């Protein structure tokens, strides 16, 4: 049976919503998606065809003909796009030993005890509030670096396994390079960037404001002998000796002066837990350099939780962006729960994202 949580008993004048609102800015800085996505207006329900784009899906579906010898996508794969997007959920549970400690603290009647208890309970509240955002970050970084979203047993061990969700980009939006960038002696990343951006502009009419790469790729980039030579020629024109620092600011200054996109580094590792054991996952493809417009690149589609429409008695609720957070206790056995639910999916404007896959050799760019 659901009963009021410890929080509800202790908070008195402080609501859950008040605590989350007070921490909102700090919590938002723990995740990435708000930098790249607008938050959409909540909908009643959320489906893949609304998040990816119905027109794009129907265009893809029209290619799949029963008479075609090699359909581009199988029918059972396309069924995925017609289904509802499941909720993102997580729960934090206090053990009975922890609850006994809380009872002992409550009975001591020491000044500040109540605030200490609230702080203890607020930790779970804050973790629940951002856990959905962290899942959105994973999907967003996959979309940015691969033009797909991959929900698999590695990055979603306790949930549904979709496999790859194709965001229906064109094949020409991913290209290789003449020499892999890990070859620091002979690779020429600056020429690759210049040639690639010019090719996209002249053939597709698209210009970019930023190129996003992983920190791993950044380390390869700054090791390149030809990058160092290019920087030296930029910073030491007319000087007798060479003096410059290979920093992100200096490289972006040189890129801007050459009307090229600036570099945005993604150094992001997600904490994935399975059966209480942590693993660490890099969602952004370490070999990809993603060329994108500056600013927002899409929208976070989201839907209202049914429990927000029909709240349960004795449960305390709060909102954190598109996430519904709740606290309650169960008396059989007596356990305190903090839970979150988010119905959301990142809708990325993939038509404007082009990728250099720096570990794949390709002599020239082509459709």
Report on this model:
Helices cover 38% and strands 25% of the residues. It contains 14 helices and 16 strands. It has helices at residues 6-11, 16-22, 24-28, 33-36, 48-52, 54-63, 75-78, 96-108, 113-146, 189-204, 215-223, 225-235, 248-257, 306-309, and strands spanning 2-3, 37-39, 88-94, 148-151, 163-166, 174-177, 210-214, 262-266, 270-274, 277-281, 288-292, 298-303, 316-320, 323-331, 334-348, 354-361. Strands 1, 2, 3, 12, 13, 14 and 15 form a seven-stranded mixed β-sheet that branches. Strands 6-16-11-7-8 form a five-stranded mixed β-sheet, sandwiched between helices. It has a two-stranded antiparallel ribbon with strand order 4-5. A hairpin with a 2-residue loop joins strand 13 (316-320) and strand 14.
């Amino acid at each position: 049976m659901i009963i009021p949580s410890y929080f509800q008993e202790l908070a008195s004048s402080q609501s859950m919503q008040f605590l989350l609102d007070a921490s909102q800015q700090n919590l938002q800085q723990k995740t990435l998606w708000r930098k790249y996505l607008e938050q959409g207006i909540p909908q009643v329900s959320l489906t893949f065809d609304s998040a990816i784009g119905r027109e794009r899906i129907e265009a893809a579906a029209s290619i799949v003909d029963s008479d075609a010898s090699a359909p581009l996508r199988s029918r059972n794969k396309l069924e995925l796009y017609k289904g509802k997007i499941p909720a993102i959920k997580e729960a934090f549970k206090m053990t009975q030993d922890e609850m006994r400690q809380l009872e002992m603290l409550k009975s001591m009647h020491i000044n500040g005890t109540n605030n200490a208890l609230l702080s203890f309970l607020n930790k779970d509240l804050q973790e629940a509030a951002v856990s959905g955002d962290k899942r959105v970050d994973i999907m967003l970084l996959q979309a940015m670096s691969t033009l797909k979203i991959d929900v698999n047993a590695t990055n979603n061990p306790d949930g549904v396994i979709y496999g790859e969700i194709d965001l229906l980009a064109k094949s020409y939006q991913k290209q290789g390079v003449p020499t892999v960038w890990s070859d620091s002696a002979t690779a020429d990343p600056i020429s690759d960037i210049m040639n690639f951006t010019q090719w996209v502009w002249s053939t597709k009419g698209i210009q970019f404001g930023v190129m996003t790469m992983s920190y791993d790729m950044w380390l390869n980039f700054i090791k390149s002998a030809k990058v160092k030579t290019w920087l030296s020629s930029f910073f030491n024109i007319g000087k007798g000796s060479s003096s410059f620092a290979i920093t992100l600011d200096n490289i972006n200054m040189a890129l801007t002066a050459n009307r090229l996109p600036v570099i945005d580094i993604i150094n992001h590792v997600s904490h994935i837990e399975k059966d209480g054991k942590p693993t660490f996952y890099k969602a952004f493809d370490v070999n990809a350099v993603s060329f994108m417009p500056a600013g927002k690149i899409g929208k976070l589609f989201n839907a209202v939780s049914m429990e927000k429409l029909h709240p349960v008695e004795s449960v305390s609720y709060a909102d954190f962006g598109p996430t519904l957070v709740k606290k309650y206790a169960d008396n059989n056995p007596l356990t305190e729960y903090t839970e979150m639910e988010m119905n959301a999916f990142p809708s990325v404007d993939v038509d404007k994202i082009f990728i250099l896959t720096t570990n794949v050799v390709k002599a020239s760019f082509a459709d």
